[in-house]
């Protein structure tokens, strides 16, 4: 990945006008300029260039007892996903993180819109992370003997949670100063492919309704209906939620992605680092039934994307130097993204070296030696949709501060 990236860096600058999705890194020598101080002497803004595609503004909140080796917490806003945002965290909440964690808090105002679709936000976040590495991690504290490098944590919600997961899962090299050591994710959009709609005929395929013995058919139908109700997924159960609906997320997806193929990139859908997608890439007819007037999408099973069985992908690779960070995943009990968050937490936990080696048949002894490297994952279920407000963000900040203190690397 790094070699391919370096090749792009040496290419003509015009290539940056149409960045390739999945490009793992961005230039390390990033232009930036400091903007005016806003509201408080502890808050200032920095403008970071992203190749030739514009710039991103960072809001930097410095703690009262500023020190070059203070931890760094990156905060990624939730993005334009909600029709009626319920009071997102404000500058005062972000400033409170400084008091609680004694960390430098940086809000990355990544760009995302119909004119700046994916992979723009991915490139923005990577560029800003590179700026943090160059300017803060490898700053004055690293010149001391012995050098001191700030520990870095990240948190984000919804779209920001997706981007935070992407960065945490890819920028966690065990010997790298400034690696992401802790990550807190709130209702992350971990898989933009979303659950495929079932064919209206799917539930009936296994039962022959032509059987005249209705007394034999009806109990089977009733049993299947009851089983389906018990195992209904969160996407279906809370699709019509007022705060965060399926229609709103599908509309956002249509706006932020120019092609359905881009939903399937792990840098956009971090769950796909750990498993395959549950659907095929939609065909042209499935994307827009209007292209075939004779097709009725409500009755034609061919118009529904084909469902696939999930297949595990080993991540990180067994001999990689990636060591996943301490992680916390917050989900709402009534959020349609609940199942995604739960699955992400489970798959991160299962990626631990001991689990992987036991699954590969390495034996109990070797697996036990790796227990100290197991991934520390916490799943937090909140009432309702579970979106972060100021109080929740302060709680998350407190958790990040403790997690960064536990981190030894």
Question: If you had to describe this structure to a student in words, what would you say it looks like?
Answer:
The chain has 409 residues and is α/β, with parallel strands linked by helices. The protein has a domain at 43-195 and 309-406: Alpha/Beta hydrolase fold, catalytic domain (Rossmann fold). It is built from 12 helices and 9 strands. The longest helix has 18 residues, at 120-137. It is globular. The chain starts with a helix and ends with a helix. The relative contact order is 0.14. Residues 1-20, 198-214, 289-303 and 363-372 have low confidence and may be disordered.
Q: Under CATH, the topology of the domain at 43-195 and 309-406 is which? A: Rossmann fold
Poorly predicted runs of 5 or more residues:
1-20, 198-214, 289-303, 363-372
Task: Please outline the major beta sheet.
Answer: 9 strands, mixed
Oligomer: single chain
The CATH architecture classification of the domain at 43-195 and 309-406 is: 3-Layer(aba) Sandwich
Provide the helix percentage: 25-40%
CATH class of the domain at 43-195 and 309-406: Alpha Beta
**Average pLDDT:** 78
Category by helix and strand content = alpha/beta
The helix/strand series, from N terminus to C terminus, equals HEEEEHEHEHEHHHHEHHHEH
Tell me the fraction of residues in β-strands, as a range: 5-15%
| Superfamily (CATH H level) name of the domain at 43-195 and 309-406 | Alpha/Beta hydrolase fold, catalytic domain
Radius of gyration: 23 Å
Q: Which shape, going by the Cα principal axes?
A: globular
Total of DSSP H or I helical runs spanning 4+ residues: 12
End-to-end Cα distance, whole Å, is: 23 Å
Beta strands, count: 9
Largest sheet: spatial strand order: 1-2-3-5-4-6-7-8-9
GO molecular function: hydrolase activity
InterPro entries: AB_hydrolase_3, AB_hydrolase_fold
Domain Alpha/beta hydrolase fold-3: 94-210
Organism: Lasallia pustulata
